[in-house]
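Encode chain A's predicted structure.
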Amino acid sequence: MPKLSISAQSFPIAGTFTISRGSKTAADVILVELEQDGLKGKGEAVPYARYDETVPQCLAALEAARPAIERGQLDASALALPKAAQNALDCAAWDLRAKQGGKPAWALAGLAAPVPQVTAYTISLDAPEAMAAAAAKAAHMPLLKLKLGREGDEQRLAAIRAAVPRSRLIVDANEGWRDNVLEVMLAACRLHGVELVEQPLPAGDDEALRHTRHDVLICADESAHDAQSLAALRGKYDAVNIKLDKTGGLTGALAMAREARAQHFKIMVGCMLATSLAMAPAFLVAQLADYVDLDGPLLLARDRSPAIAYQNGLMSPPRSALWG
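Encoded structure for chain A:
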């Protein structure tokens, strides 16, 4: 039977990371390790306050589930766990099974061998001139993701586009816009060549999207959680952002990706601020995605070792020594 180890870890961010809801200077994660017969599987997740999850809460829930887990109950969805805790346990179980079977996780998932992917690179929310300078510094990245969602977003977009006239742009408003600015902001996005806008309106108050003309893709993030949430998004969103911390792990993320494709949504795979260990299982979902946003490690002051290799926005498949 597997032995469970759980811990909390913190990784400093390179500077400050700001979105419409606030700022942070560290990525606080939970680590789950499952050890059996000398083999160890690992999973990392980010408890997220937006979903009423905290590090202590997730650790306590995993501790309460320890007896079941150490009896061999590794189906995270069958345990009373917060989604982030489910994610860490599910990914650790995938990693352990891969090592036990001598087969990579992508093969266990029925996928083709993973290939490198272009990931978005995030420009943190700031004053227009500061965001423009950050975008210019990152102009070598093939896809820039702009954090918006506060007053002055039109000026931010104009300044950034002037600074990086040839860059591909996507936008994440993190629920920061309201009905009265929606059409104006979507028109500004169209004017500046933005390809996709994530979660422009608050989850639960996004009905206006059903009646708003738009020429850019609208992607659900906070409104999209798992495969069961997709039906309610039809007619409002063109795409969904799949994050393992929302689906409860790789198992749920793969199910959501396949159901999203069946329901004709475009797919983005995203992440919370975390290390390469959290990106590794998400990279398998990236093989099914139209947009990849797995730049978490690039925003940290330090990563795990071994780490996923990134070169000018191109993300390489993770090494088995890291995960899977």
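The mean pLDDT is 97.
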